[in-house]
Amino acid sequence: MSDDTVATTIEQLLGPDSPKNWGKWGPDDEVGSLNYLDAAQVLRGISTVKTGEVFTLQVPIGDPNHPDPVWPGREPAVRTPVMDEGYFARGEEPEPSDGHHWADDRIDMFTQGSSQYDALAHYWYGDQVWNGYSADTTVGRLERASVLPIAEKGVVGRGVLIDVARARDKDVLDSGERITLDDLLSVAASQNVTIEPRDILMIRTGWIGSYYRNSADEFYRDWNEPGLVYSRELVEWFQEMEIPNLVTDTIANELSFYPGGLQLPLHCALMRNLGVAFTELCQLDDLADACAADWRWSFLYTAAPLKISGASGAPVNPVVIR
Q1: DSSP secondary-structure letter at 35?
Q2: pLDDT tens, residue by residue, 106-115
């Protein structure tokens, strides 16, 4: 979409013939494009492993020095101790006869308040979610296309990292900085890596890494996350390439706001219409440094969000093996 294009609704922007994968895997499907990740894709991912290096991509939950980065309007996780040595020292817990002590705690958090997978029914327009299910199936809990089927399937395949920030010689992209399909393909070419059909596509902007180097006030000032921008060509490319999963180091995987007030149209064009799984808020800096060190940008990607029944998303700690 060009800078001077202004649409007032998601439906207007995408048009009546937006590419869809509804029904492709049957009327009861709830994992969408993750169906592309069959045993052959698992083995293709395994074949990329050369050194055995392991990278975990989740940001910490409950870091006392950095409240969890979350979408504005959500609140960071709160960890509350409910048992520790202090309870015994204060006499609040009876001393067990065998002398054992223990610690316990709880977390109150948004299910999408950390590195996480979106459910395919997390975001929609009109009165239908992924695969044509009625939006009424989201009332109270997601009866269809919740995060649970994704968690039960698991995600394993060949991951490819496209380091846009490094290609632009930046630690972090600017607020509102755009990434187009041409940009993706150009950066891939500069990295001498080919994005292949059914690859798990990972895009680094440096955004979440910058949160841990700066103040929260600076991070949230003039909020408009950098990222992919909608175009019909981009959506068609995702469909033709059978991309199962989009992973980024931003909270929403795409540019936040468009002229005219549009918000997150790729959530609808890719997730709602094509069934592409969205993995958001991942820490990609260390992985990117390792990839740049030996100029090897593909690897085995594995992930499984928590199995939360009926939820619109769930925390995840993806594991990459190179």
Answers
A1: G
A2: 999 999 999 9
First to last CA, the chain: 36
d(Cα 219, Cα 66) in Å, to the nearest integer?
A: 12
H and E: helices and strands count for the chain: 12, 13
User: pTM here?
Assistant: 0.95
Q: How far apart are CA 208 and CA 293, in angstroms?
A: 21
Segments of the chain assigned E as strands = 54-56, 78-83, 104-108, 116-118, 155-163, 178-179, 200-204, 227-228, 245-248, 277-280, 298-303, 313-315, 319-321
User: For residues 316 and 247, what is the distance between their CA atoms, to the nearest angstrom?
Assistant: 12
Task: Evaluate if residue 138 carries a pLDDT over 80.
Answer: yes
For 149, half-sphere exposure in the C-beta direction (CA atoms, 13 angstrom radius) is 18
Between vectors from CA 60 to CA 56 and to CA 63, what angle results, nearest 5°? Answer: 155
Q: For strand 245-248 and strand 104-108, is the pairing parallel, antiparallel, or unpaired?
A: unpaired
Query: With the C-alpha atoms ordered 256, 261, 266, 268, is the resulting torsion angle positive or negative?
Result: positive
